[in-house]
């Protein structure tokens, strides 16, 4: 068996795993990242698009922001549409912050570039990953690579392997508590080759269901519509998607959605999920491995970054002074932010989607909520503060 010795064994080369590996490296701490897919797969996987200001600042301060600042789009607000109403939330004016639209897979490419430039150990196509001795001071990760049995022996394990990964499953059932909410809809997402029809994101609540206009570049739009989670993508030919997009986004003041060739489409389920605690022994869960939020709040990637920010500080403090107290508080610190983000994402989802079996009362109440959040400065500020991101912190209270 091939054995690799390192300080931190990281499972998963998504945003959580790669940001952690990068931040640890800057503190002089060694890690090995094990990823089940190929480098090309993780560099092309289409996912999130909105970065909070705190996450952009973190990437910038740690030397991963150069291309981002050249290519990304800074947005100072978002639009809501419902009925014949349209409202713009001016984030800069409401809370002095903004958001950045930059594809998750571009962040991944930038992170992999800096990690490889620093001669990082990242193993792609690591198969049958399993975690062992996680409640000891020398946990291990077993996996297969090129038909060879391999093992990483480390001081700490970081479970950054997403919702379906192996890490959370390695926690004893007697310790783990899971909270879950599955929504009765999914999001059909497309990439379309057309200049963005709007300068900022548009979230629309329509009687046929939610829709969202986002973008990836000056040439590519990212669009989503609420669909039945059981729908097969074959039920959604391009013409049907455009018809629903036009209908749901509407045409206030003569505005029109620009169409373009659809270069990618898929349907993703919507779920809220939290695993507590996020630590067992020397294993720490981070990102989607520990929690999922429905995409309406654009928070998943940002929350993953916030977790590993805390974990990096905890591990660094341990190596610098032997002090484990921050690591012991890791779960509480992350869950405190995590539940606030759960609440925000749940609230945005409920305010903007249409629910099966809802009554005329439910719809009127939802419209009153939209009216309030768009007309009360206090409510609008609360939305702006959450959307642009709560501060990254290692404080528990
Ligand atoms: P990831 O990105 O899922 O990465 C986990 C990695 O682990 C690997 N892996 C394994 N490797 C080895 N062995 C195993 N047994 C393994 N099992 C899994 C996987 O291949 C993968 O490479 O988790 P991470 O790092 O925690 O990052 C989380 C984010 O990816 C996720 O929360 C966001 O994409 C969510 N999300 C959004 N977040 C935002 O902050 N802003 C957004 O605008 C936003 N929009 C979205 C989204 C997610 C979406 N989908 C597809 C659910 C829009 C959509 C449509
Ligand atoms: C995206 O651009 O992919 C995106 C934007 C905002 C969201 C979710 C996804 O709320």
Features:
single chain, 397 residues, alpha/beta, FAD/NAD(P)-binding domain, D-Amino Acid Oxidase, Chain A, domain 2, 2 domains, eight-stranded mixed β-sheet, six-stranded mixed β-sheet, 12 helices, binds 8-demethyl-8-dimethylamino-flavin-adenine-dinucleotide, binds P-hydroxybenzoic acid
Mean pLDDT value? 97
CATH class descriptor of the largest domain? Alpha Beta
Uncertain parts: none
Terminus-to-terminus distance: 46 Å
Count of folded domains: 2
Provide the gyration radius in Å.
Answer: 21 Å
CATH topology of the largest domain: FAD/NAD(P)-binding domain
Which molecules are bound besides the chains? 8-demethyl-8-dimethylamino-flavin-adenine-dinucleotide, P-hydroxybenzoic acid
Largest sheet: 8 strands, mixed
Task: Name the beta content range.
Answer: 25-35%
How would you classify the quaternary structure? single chain
Number of helices: 12
Give the class from helix and strand content and strand pairing.
alpha/beta
General form: globular
CATH superfamily heading of the largest domain: FAD/NAD(P)-binding domain
Strand order in the sheet with the most strands: 7-6-15-16-17-14-18-21
Number of strands: 21
Q: Percent range for helical residues?
A: 25-40%
Task: Label the CATH architecture of the largest domain.
Answer: 3-Layer(bba) Sandwich
């Amino acid at each position: 068996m091939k054995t690799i010795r390192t300080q931190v064994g990281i499972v998963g080369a998504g945003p959580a795993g790669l940001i952690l590996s990068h931040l640890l490296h800057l503190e002089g701490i060694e890690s090995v990242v094990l990823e089940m897919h190929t480098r090309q797969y993780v560099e092309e996987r289409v996912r999130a698009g909105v970065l909070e200001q705190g996450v952009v600042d973190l990437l910038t301060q740690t030397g991963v922001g150069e291309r981002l600042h050249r290519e990304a789009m800074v947005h100072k607000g978002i639009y809501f549409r419902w009925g014949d109403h349209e409202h713009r939330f001016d984030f800069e004016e409401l809370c002095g912050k903004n958001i950045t639209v930059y594809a998750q897979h571009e962040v991944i490419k930038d992170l992999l570039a800096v990690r490889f430039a620093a001669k990082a150990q990242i193993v792609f196509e690591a198969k049958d990953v399993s975690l062992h001795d996680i409640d000891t001071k020398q946990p291990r990760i077993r996996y297969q690579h090129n038909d060879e049995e391999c093992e990483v022996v480390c001081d700490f394990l970081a479970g950054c392997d997403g919702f379906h990964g192996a890490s959370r499953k390695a926690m004893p059932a007697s310790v783990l508590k899971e909270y879950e909410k599955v929504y009765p809809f999914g999001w059909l997402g497309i990439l379309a080759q057309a200049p963005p029809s709007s300068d900022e994101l548009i979230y629309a609540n329509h009687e046929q269901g939610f829709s969202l206009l986002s973008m990836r570049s000056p040439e590519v739009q990212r669009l989503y519509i609420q669909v039945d989670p059981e729908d097969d993508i074959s039920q959604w030919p391009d013409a049907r998607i455009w018809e629903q997009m036009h209908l749901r986004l509407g045409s206030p003041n003569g505005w029109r959605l620009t169409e373009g060739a659809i270069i990618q489409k898929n349907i993703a389920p919507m779920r809220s999920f939290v695993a507590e605690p996020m630590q067992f022994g020397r294993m720490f869960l981070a990102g989607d491995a520990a929690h999922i939020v429905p995409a309406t709040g654009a928070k998943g990637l940002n929350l993953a970054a916030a977790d590993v920010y805390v974990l990096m500080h905890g591990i660094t403090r341990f190596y610098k002074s032997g002090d484990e107290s921050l690591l012991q508080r890791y779960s509480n610190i992350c869950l405190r932010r995590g539940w606030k983000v759960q609440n925000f994402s749940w609230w945005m989802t409920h305010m903007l989607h249409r629910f099966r079996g809802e009554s005329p009362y439910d719809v009127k109440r939802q419209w009153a909520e939209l009216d309030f959040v768009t007309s009360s400065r206090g409510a609008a500020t609360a939305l702006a503060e959450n959307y642009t991101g709560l501060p990254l912190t290692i404080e528990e209270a």
